[in-house]
Write a structure and sequence with these properties.
eight-stranded mixed sheet, C8orf32 fold, 672 residues, single chain, Jelly Rolls, Immunoglobulin-like, nine-stranded mixed sheet, mainly beta, 3 domains
Length: 672
């Protein structure tokens, strides 16, 4: 049944720029600008951003979502060059794909009082497959200089109904912004702001009547949801309303980066669009009532997901040899975990579906997150271990605001043995059971039960990671300080150390150790169990410092925390609009002994002190004493609650300020 369709009114995305922001018309005034009036310390600023989305009718495809983006950005200094790199992500899997086109870019510079343009060459636009589902177009603007103005524009055509979140705030100020979204009324979206953002904006809404003539040559049409077709054998006019959402804003402040934050994008202003109803050509609605339960079940029941768990023939011999006669479930869990980590390495791609299939990943020794952890789940089940898949959103993916399969992009395993629950991720060689990579620790995950139902499970650890340091120090006659240090770190602290130093020799480890801004040299480093991932790391080394001891007349001044003292308060803002994330519960302890030099006595010591936040979320103790020619200091800091609310911020800031002050107080020794 071939149809000839004539459109009386055609939806077209027309880029109609305000008079002062026509592409290619950059003024000398913009090029001569040396700082942003809204935020003088900013390295760059968006002079104008325009985002237009509309559903364009295509005779062969029906309605297609088309988005045009235009940005003009001012670069004030070299630190702002990063805003001249653009990454455009698009869905691309099988026959379902979005197309990125019409990528254009121009760099404007003021040379000899004249405006010089440098066009972006197509050869500098690189297209890369991120994983089995997404492509990325990446470009970097040419001929960048302090003072440059750049323009970037592109189009994304999508066959999908889901509207991508529209950013309304960056880390740099936005002088002027316009967002224009046009939607046929047979698609009903709920539009709302990011509830975690401190800035929110209101769209103006209006309706416009649209008419489309459909002429059918013969045959019987159907009433499809989402793209109308007129039934019968005669011509007719299809009428509908187009709803327009328009936002125009000026002087949008930047979102501020701060210490101890999970993902800054979680707190940036953005427009979120949730599809709730689809109507057919006759106006009959179909309600979309997604829930996390239904999203999880849909993922779980897909063939490539469940088949990856059930397919075991290709590894059965290896698994049997690895397990031997072992019957203890906890030992079997560790054996399987080590087998997968050593057999298949993560290729850097995320995803909860397998990219190439667990069999191929096992054979080739590499795969995406889905390949690796579905294989882990499959092997654990084959070993008679009670294991369930857990869908999560990685830290970089943020926190989804409504149920959608795109809200998940990662997969781990949950094991239950003897009433105890364990979380496992085999994508990193030196992670251990219950010690997830940092990228996977993001609020909560969705565990899927055997019947397809699901529930939330917390991802933050409920145990504290320990770091202990024992120091014996003495002040030398030449005013330098020598010390012997022994340390031990476990769980997440050990994972962090291995992340930085695994595979490196002692000299490389010394070069990378934190000297805390002091003139100190480390030597004779010995590390134990760096490669034994289930054990704590222990280390010992010598330290020699020339900047820690200050001699004035007959008195010696020294901070007893030596090169471990916190130098500044990481919390500098007067207020904070998002939570404080300490990543994991932790316990830091220091036991420091300083030998009093011969011929000196203690004139004064810092006072001992203790402090705590409400509910012992954070506790700190500083206990110092002198006995038998020795000064002994015991410092303990425990962060028992890894996430603290903005309402706690002032208390946290004050407490850390007191800690910094205490740890930089001096012992005063006087000559006898």
């Amino acid at each position: 049944m071939k149809k000839i369709v004539t459109l009386i009114a055609l939806l077209i995305v027309v880029v109609a720029f305000p008079q002062n922001f026509k592409p290619g018309k950059v003024s000398k005034k913009e090029l001569e600008e040396t700082e942003n009036a809204l935020n003088p310390k900013s390295n760059a600023a968006v002079l104008y951003r325009e985002h237009r989305t509309a559903f364009v009718y295509n005779q062969s495809k029906g309605f297609e979502q088309v988005t045009n983006v235009f940005e003009r950005i001012k670069i004030y200094n070299p630190e702002g060059y990063r805003w001249a790199t653009k990454k455009i992500k698009s869905y691309n899997h099988g026959s379902d794909r979005e197309e990125v086109s019409s990528i254009k870019g121009t760099t404007f510079n003021l040379v000899g009082g004249k405006v010089k343009k440098t066009k972006l060459d197509k050869s500098n636009v690189f297209k890369e497959r991120l994983n089995d589902y997404f492509m990325e177009n990446k470009l970097t603007m040419p001929n960048l200089q302090p003072g440059s103005v750049i323009e970037i524009e592109y189009t994304v055509q999508s066959p999908f109904l889901g509207i991508t979140d529209i950013p309304l705030q960056y880390e740099i100020p936005i002088n002027k912004m316009m967002v224009d979204v046009k939607i046929p009324d047979f698609y009903v979206y709920r539009n709302y702001a990011n509830p975690q953002a401190s800035n929110s904006f209101t769209f103006e809404e209006s309706d416009k009547n649209i008419e489309v003539v459909i002429r059918e040559r013969s045959g019987l049409g159907t009433a499809n949801y989402g793209n109308f077709k007129r039934g019968g054998g005669s011509s007719g006019i299809q009428s509908y309303k187009e709803r327009r959402y328009l936002l125009e804003e000026v002087n949008v402040p930047p979102i501020k980066r701060a210490a101890y934050i999970d993902n800054l994008d979680n707190y940036a202003a953005k427009a979120v669009w949730e599809l709730t109803v689809i109507k057919n050509g006759n106006g009959i609605p179909k309600m979309l009532s997604n829930s996390w339960e239904s999203v999880s079940k849909t993922i779980y029941e897909r063939d490539d997901f469940i088949n990856s768990i059930n397919n075991s023939s290709f590894y059965e011999d290896d698994l049997k040899n690895a397990l031997g006669a072992e019957t203890d479930p906890s030992v079997k869990m560790q054996i399987v975990y080590d087998l997968v980590k050593n057999k298949v390495r993560w290729n850097g791609y995320y995803g909860y579906f397998p990219e190439q299939g667990t069999k191929k990943a096992y054979k080739e020794g590499k795969g995406n997150v889905g390949d690796v952890n579905l294989l882990l789940i499959s092997m654990l089940r084959k070993a008679q271990i009670n294991v369930l898949p857990v869908l999560i959103s990685s830290k970089s993916n943020g926190i989804p605001l409504f149920p959608t399969r795109y809200g998940f992009n990662y997969l781990i395993a949950q094991v239950e043995i003897g009433g105890n629950t364990y979380l496992l991720d085999a994508t990193k060689l030196y992670t251990t059971i219950n010690v997830l990579p940092e990228r996977a620790i993001n609020w909560q995950g969705r565990v899927i039960l055997p019947d397809g139902s699901s529930d939330w499970v917390p991802l933050y650890p409920d145990f504290s990671s320990q770091k202990l340091s024992y120091v014996q120090a003495e002040i030398n006659p030449d005013g330098t300080l020598s010390a012997k240090v022994r340390g031990r770190m476990g769980d997440h602290y050990a994972k962090e150390y291995r992340t930085e130093f695994y595979g490196k020799n002692a000299n490389d480890q010394i070069d990378g150790m934190d000297k805390n801004g002091e003139d100190v040299k480390f030597s004779n480093l010995e590390t134990k169990d760096l490669n034994a991932f289930t054990k704590n790391i222990t280390l010992s080394y010598d330290a020699n410092a020339t900047s820690l001891v200050e001699t004035i007349n007959d008195e010696i001044y020294i901070s007893p925390m030596l090169f471990f003292a916190q130098k500044e308060n990481p919390f500098k803002e007067n207020t904070r609009e998002y939570p404080v994330f300490f990543d994991f519960p932790k316990s830091d302890k220091y036991n420091i002994t300083i030998k009093i030099p011969e011929g000196y006595t203690v004139k004064s010591l810092p006072e001992s002190a203790k402090s705590a936040l409400a509910g012992d979320a954070v506790t700190y103790s500083y206990l110092i004493s002198e006995s038998n020619g020795m000064i002994q200091l015991a410092v303990a800091m425990d962060i028992n609650k890894p996430i603290l609310l903005p309402s706690d911020y002032q208390f946290i800031k004050d407490m850390f300020g007191q800690i910094v002050g205490k740890e930089n107080e001096k012992i005063v020794l006087s000559k006898i």
